[in-house]
Write a structure and sequence with these properties.
MoaD/ThiS family protein, Mopterin_synth/thiamin_S_b, alpha+beta, ThiS/MoaD-like, five-stranded mixed sheet
Length: 84
């Protein structure tokens, strides 16, 4: 398991109630499952619309279970932003 920091932006930050928090997970899918367990409700709904960066690289359409996390890495949770 990798120790990573999950950073929330905009609506995700508001729904989580924190800007960032640590998680342990091997893949992005595992990290997001844990996020949903820790923050049921609004954040779970916001995550459906989010895109993700893992260590600065866009995840895009890749299945989240195939995106490996590195120890000390960062997952950025990016909701859609208004104004382009």
């Amino acid at each position: 398991m990798a120790k990573v920091t999950v950073r929330y932006w905009a609506a995700a930050k508001a729904a989580a109630g924190v800007a960032e928090e640590p998680y342990e997970a091997a893949t992005l899918a595992e990290a997001l499952d844990t996020v949903r367990g820790r923050h049921p409700g609004e954040l779970t709904r916001v995550l459906l619309r989010c895109s993700f960066l893992v260590d600065g690289d866009p995840v895009g359409k890749r299945p989240h279970e195939t995106v490996r996390l590195a120890d000390g890495g960062t997952v950025e949770v990016l909701p859609p932003f208004a104004g382009g």
